[in-house]
Amino acid sequence: MDPAGGLTLLTAGIPGVPGPAELVAVGDLVVRVIVAISYLSVTLFVGAMLVSNAGERTRAVGEEIRQHPVESGGFGVGTVVACVAGYLLVGVTAAGLAELGAPAQVGILVLIPLVVGVIGLVIATALGQLVVGIILLRRFSEDGRPNLWGALIVGTVVVGMAAILPVGNLVGVAVTVLAIGGVTRRLWRANTDRLSTLRDRLLE
Fold first, then answer.
1. Model confidence at 98: pLDDT above 90
2. For residue 46, what is the enclosing H or E element?
3. Where are the alpha helices (DSSP H) in 54-68?
């Protein structure tokens, strides 16, 4: 006998007792909440490290995203695509070396970028939450420089609440991609300016 069908028979007609569909829906919501709290706890810790050790750089990235959201998003998507393509290339290379008789340790070539990528995503998510808080609290700050600890809490709560919703994962992905784009765009501009300065000096 189907357990769900048996549960339906047992609960049918009993006032105040939820049916299987309601129990499944509640269970799904509970799982979403637990996963969101666990992940946000990790990113909250990483965000605290960013505030403590790279506060001004975090502000700069937040300002970069606020002023150039479309460009930051484009840089973020491009960076993610490049990283995925690079990882696939490393995987194909490792598989080819294994076919040629390379030792099993060649698998580290695949493991290392995977671990680095996961760590990078956690840092980018924490940075994205911080940036969300900075942008939201900016209008309430007299000098446009909100307290980073307050921004961290506000951004974490907002992204965490969004993650519980059915489409909340898209919000988290968008925030992370924007954070990645803000960092890469800022690095691109800095290196471009340095190369331009160096070229001008060499041509003098």
1. no
2. helix 20-53
3. 55-67
Q: Coil, strand, or helix at residue 192?
A: helix
Q: Say if 9 falls within a structural domain.
A: no
Q: Are 162 and 168 in contact (CB under 8 A)?
A: yes
**H helix count then E strand count, the chain:** 7, 0
Position 147, amino acid: N
CB distance 75 to 181 below 8 Å: yes
Q: Is the pTM of this model over 0.90?
A: no
Let me know if residue 94 belongs to a domain: yes
pLDDT range class, residue 10, cuts 50, 70, 90: very low
The single residue listed with the structure tokens 């995925």 is: 84
Residue entry with tokens 């666990």: 38
pLDDT (average), residues 41-64: 88
* Residue 101 belongs to a domain: yes
Our measurement of the distance from residue 136's CA atom to the centroid of its chain's CA atoms, rounded to an integer in Å, reads 18
In a domain, 170, yes or no: yes
Domain assignment of residue 113, given as a range: 19-199
Q: Retrieve residue 158's tokens.
A: 């907002």
Nearest to 134 by CA among 72, 47, 53, 46: 47
Total domains in the fold of the chain: 1
